[in-house]
Amino acid sequence: MAFSHLNNMAFSVEKQSPGIISKATFPLRYGAYSEIRTSEYEFIFNLNGEIKFIRGLNVNWPHPAEQLKRTDGNDWVFYSVGDVGGDKGIISWMGEYYLPCLPYPSNAVWEINYFANSGVMNAFAAWSQLYADLYGAQGSSGLHSKTKALISQVLQNHDGVLYERSQELNEIIGGRVTVLPPDTRHVDYEVIPIIIADGCLYHCDFCCVKSPHNFHKRSESEITEQIQRLKIYYGRNLQNLNALFLGNHDALAAGSELICFTASEAFNAFYSGNSRAITPFLFLFGSVDSLLNSKNDLFEQLGQLPFYTYINIGFESVDASTLKFIGKPVDASKVRAAFQKMIEISDSHTNIEITGNFLVGEQLSSEHYKSLAGLLRDTPGPSNGKGAIYLSPLKDSPKRRELLPRFYEIKSQSQLPVYIYLIQRL
Ligand code: SF4
Questions:
Q1: How far is the centre of ligand 1, averaged over its atoms, from the C-alpha of 395 (Å)?
Q2: Greatest CA separation found in the chain?
Q3: Considering only CA atoms, which residue is closest to atom 3 of ligand 1?
Q4: Ligand 1, atom 5: nearest CA belongs to which residue?
Q5: Are 342 and 354 in contact (CB under 8 A)?
Q6: How confident is the model at residue 87 (pLDDT cuts 50, 70, 90)?
Q7: Does a structural domain hold residue 264?
Q8: Based on the domain organization, do 230 and 365 belong to the same domain?
């Protein structure tokens, strides 16, 4: 790591932190990154010199543990620690110590308009100022060669380039990832997306992320091309990315052959040849039918892969009238059978964990809540402590913050951990 100072800027080039993302009350850095500090802000860059985080160090910054994060989709997300600590704090409903406040409409139970906070908005102005200062500093004498290289990289990645890069990612994978599985919170939503299938089996009426297409798989050659292009796209920063998201809305329905083909090709392209102490993660969505139709050999094969795999299933409700009301063409009996299978698979495969989603919303009936609470109360979770249930507020639900007491009521009865699911894009 090289340190140097220039005017009001302190540079730390290629700092190395543990690759594993820890859950902590304060934002811990992970992987390899560079940092430029001024007296008022901390700017973090990835190994390609792209801005990733900004954290205020001044008295106007809302909280020392809060920060702005730029995603690969070029969204600036504000990580808030909320206004309540302890048992009823964000950790109790998100499973994390922060709440991602998104710059686009979503289904949050608690919305924070960070654009209205002058302390946060000043951080964007500070980022523009830093860019101008770096531009002026690039020819300065006496700087370490690595610091000069960092300045040059950051200058190349101005806002226009960062936007183009996000568009390039969408072009490589054939469209934007409109929703990530809730389990990707374990890697701070930092995933490499590889789309192996488009569309989904149901086209539920309530769903705000569905595609108009019928379900169809991508070919092996299309997938191989994505992987090759993604390897070039991520460049040096690939070493910081320890997770794949196999998309899109029901990758489990693509079957064992395509899932395992993709995971193996991606592992060889991204992870082989470097000595990693970390087991990479594989995330995918599944549906009630794709889970029920998956034979044992799919899970046997997934279990052989050098990944820890999370599969997230959209159950939505175990109440027949609610399934009809939300326009999900699935029988309640199938939901129960898939729920049971979710637990059995997590129980019997060391490196596979299946989680499930249910809906909450003002519009849903008491039958929905009664049947859901009963299911979670009466079904023991996997004996190894795996699995989680995510409650997803309906997007147009009024009074979403009032859903929190309902959430705590369900959580208190459940034998599995229960969290809120925030619909978040890549
Ligand atoms: S909830 Fe899932 S299965 Fe239903 S339309 Fe949305 S993506 Fe498709």
A1: 13
A2: 72
A3: 202
A4: 203
A5: yes
A6: low
A7: yes
A8: yes
> Is 321 within a domain?
yes
Residue 24: the pLDDT is 83
Averaged pLDDT, 16-38: 87
Closest ligand 1 atom, residue 287 Cα: 3
| Span from the CA of 11 to the centroid of ligand 1 (angstroms) | 46
Over residues 169-176, the mean pLDDT reads: 96
Q: Are residues 200 and 276 in the same domain?
A: yes
Question: What is the position in ligand 1's atom list of the atom closest to the CA of 179?
Answer: 7
- 195 and 148, same structural domain? no
The domain spanning residue 333 has which CATH number? 3.20.20.70
Q: What is the pLDDT of residue 3?
A: 53
pLDDT at 172 > cutoff 90: yes
Residue of 107, 203, 248, 335 to test ligand 1 pocket, by largest number of atoms within 8 Å of CB: 203
What confidence tens digit (pLDDT) does each residue in 251-295 have? 999 999 999 999 999 999 999 876 667 899 999 999 999 999 999
Q: Do 189 and 115 belong to one domain?
A: no
Could you list the residue range(s) of the whole structural domain that residue 48 is in?
2-158
Clarify whether residues 411 and 272 are in a common domain: yes
Question: Is there a contact between 292 and 341 (Cβ–Cβ < 8 Å)?
Answer: yes
239 part of a folded domain = yes
For 216, counting Cβ atoms within 10 Å of its Cβ (0-12 exposed, 13-18 middle, 19+ buried), the class is exposed
Task: Determine the atom of ligand 1 nearest the C-alpha atom of 199.
Answer: 8
Number of domains in the chain: 2
Judge whether 163 lies within some domain. no
Is 13 found in the same domain as 108? Answer: yes
The answer to whether residues 99 and 205 belong to one domain is no
Indicate the DSSP class of residue 233.
H
DSSP characters for 27-77? ----SEEEEEE-SSEEEEE-TTS-EEEEEE-STTSS-TT-EEEE-TT--EE
Structure confidence at residue 110 (pLDDT)? 76
Last-in-domain residue among 130, 158, 186? 158
CA of 413 to the centre of ligand 1 (A): 27
pLDDT-derived band at 356, boundaries 50, 70, 90: very high
- Pocket around ligand 1 at a 6 A CB cut-off: 200, 202-204, 207, 209-210, 249, 287, 314
Q: Which residue has the tokens 């200058």?
A: 155
Q: Are 383 and 347 in contact (CB under 8 A)?
A: yes
Residue of 205, 287, 334 to test ligand 1 pocket, by largest number of atoms within 8 Å of CB? 287
> pLDDT band for position 85 (50/70/90)?
low
Antiparallel, parallel or unpaired: β 76-80 and 243-247:
unpaired
143 and 222 together in one domain: no
Q: How far is the CA of 72 from the centre of ligand 1 (A)?
A: 24
Q: Say if residue 43's pLDDT is above 60.
A: yes
